[in-house]
Amino acid sequence: MVDVEVSNLTRSPVDEEGAVELARRVLAAEGLEEAEVGVQFVSPERIAELKGEHLGLHEATDVLAFPIDGRDELPAGVPRQLGDVVLCPEIVRDEWRAPLVHGLLHLLGYDHGAEMDARERLHAG
């Protein structure tokens, strides 16, 4: 089973159950039956800080992805750590589903472009 750990580090209400459900559905559709993934909801200041530290651009954004294992071959018995998707509820508001899918696809190794766009459309429904 895909283990999804959700952390809401903001004062904004978030649909944690919905985020877990969506992450599991997307990852299962992408062929991952067992994996661990983190989903964090953070403030605009924190996501800007993270973007500055990792991408050199200090500005708030909707979503960031921090991949770990992706689809790499792992030794038997080693749990797959996909990484973390970080979302800013103040930016995404009620439209958090598409950015979450976007972040999950980045964890799986997809880059921006036609293939990722097609995968996002597939998982949007």
Describe the protein's architecture and organization.
The chain is of the alpha/beta class. Helix content is 42%, strand content 21%. The protein has a four-stranded mixed sheet, sandwiched between helices. The model has no long low-confidence stretch (mean pLDDT 93).
SSE order? EHEHEEHHH
Distance, first to last CA: 22 Å
Mean pLDDT score: 93
- Supply the CATH architecture: 3-Layer(aba) Sandwich
The CATH topology: Collagenase (Catalytic Domain)
Give a short overview.
The protein is of the alpha/beta class and 125 residues long. The protein has helices spanning 16-29, 44-55, 89-92, 97-107, 114-124, and strands at 2-8, 35-41, 63-67, 81-87.
Keywords:
Collagenase (Catalytic Domain), 125 residues, 42% helix, globular, 21% strand, 5 helices, alpha/beta, 4 strands
Write the layout of secondary structure elements.
Blueprint: E1 2-8, H1 16-29, E2 35-41, H2 44-55, E3 63-67, E4 81-87, H3 89-92, H4 97-107, H5 114-124
Parallel strand pairs: 1-2, 2-4
Antiparallel strand pairs: 3-4
